[in-house]
Amino acid sequence: MSINLPLISVNGILDSAISPLDRGFSYGDGVFETCRYSRGTIPLWNYHRERLSRSAERLKIPLNESLLAQYLDAMLAYLRNANIAHSVVKIILTRGVGGRGYRLPDQIVPTYCIGIFPCTPLQTEQYRNGVAVRICDLRLSQAPALAGMKHLNRLEYILARAEWQDEFAEGLLLDAQGRVVEATVSNLFVVKNNQLYTPDLSAAGVAGVMRRNITEELAPALGLACQIVNMELDFVRGADEIFLCNSVYGIWPVNMLVDDRQSVTATHTSYSSHQITRTLQQQLAHLLGE
Description:
Elements: E1 7-10, E2 13-14, H1 23-27, E3 30-38, H2 45-59, H3 65-81, E4 86-94, E5 111-117, H4 125-129, E6 131-140, H5 155-161, E7 170-175, E8 179-183, E9 187-192, E10 195-199, H6 209-221, E11 226-229, E12 231-232, H7 233-237, E13 241-246, E14 250-259, E15 267-270, H8 275-288
Parallel strand pairs: 6-7, 6-14, 10-11
Antiparallel strand pairs: 1-2, 1-5, 3-4, 4-5, 7-8, 8-12, 9-10, 9-13, 13-14, 14-15
Family: Belongs to the class-IV pyridoxal-phosphate-dependent aminotransferase family.
GO molecular function, one term: 4-amino-4-deoxychorismate lyase activity
Cofactor: pyridoxal 5'-phosphate
């Protein structure tokens, strides 16, 4: 059996359309998860499911986990039957169709949209050889009510990504107080004196699934302590190692941090050591079966 990607289902129906009255379309009223599928399963699915469930609860969207599992299993069956080893699975949950205005509908019938997309191998050039990262001009707004979630409004990240073309792999984002938060599609880790540090995300940013996997599983397995801290840019510059992570591309070592913002004199900070980063990559490749 062969299939053409992307493959999209809406409420369990292939190639169905989303209503223009859907609140996810009209207001960004929803959340999403982007998962890496590997050899028949989504290895970090429990983390994705938990974050989706918590986010839906915070937004007061009634998530039917049994119905979601039914729709997701049907989509993953296409991958298994087509012998596709790796892909990206994106799950979007919205509040569903509602009238004009911000008032919540009296009856909420969520929309479940699942997309399957092509996926690059885990060991890309960026994974193997590391990346250069620039510091973005855009400052993330603080919004504790939304912090941690992958809600559907990504406008700040889109504007940040528009600041460069392809000369950098990622862009580092600061908040209005100048604290480091994350990158546009990644979480950040700093290695200092054989200890991991990652920014506090209680006021802004996305609490990534791979970030959680590293802090709760991969790092403890290596005996590495990990602290969540308010992180200044100078702290990042003075790191022994830094790396980025997300659930699709895994872990990328950072070779260079470039600060070419209009408000500062351009600087370049280089990192040549990736010892702990490489060890974490090996653990992750084993977990993912890649």
